[in-house]
Specification:
By secondary structure, the protein is mostly helical. It has 3 helices and no strands. Helices cover 68% and strands 0% of the residues.
Length: 69
């Protein structure tokens, strides 16, 4: 169980969204948190790839040539 205090503007937005969609506020909070956590995991994975020994890098010129730019 987790309790979170929201500022008035966010609380009002969440109340309106829940009312308009007939979904619970908890539904939207859980969905938002799930999406944020997925984004953070993607970010962490990307950070790890940038320092990986076996990363495969190409130059800008090679990329432009491959894309025929």
């Amino acid at each position: 169980m987790l309790s979170v205090r929201l500022d008035a503007e966010t609380e009002q937005f969440l109340n309106n969204l829940a009312s308009e969609t007939q979904r619970s506020k908890s539904f939207f909070v859980k969905e938002a948190l799930k999406n944020y956590m997925e984004d953070m995991q993607d970010f962490r994975d990307a950070q790890q790839r940038t320092t990986a020994e076996n990363r495969n890098l190409i130059s800008l010129e090679e990329l432009e040539k491959a894309l025929e730019l």
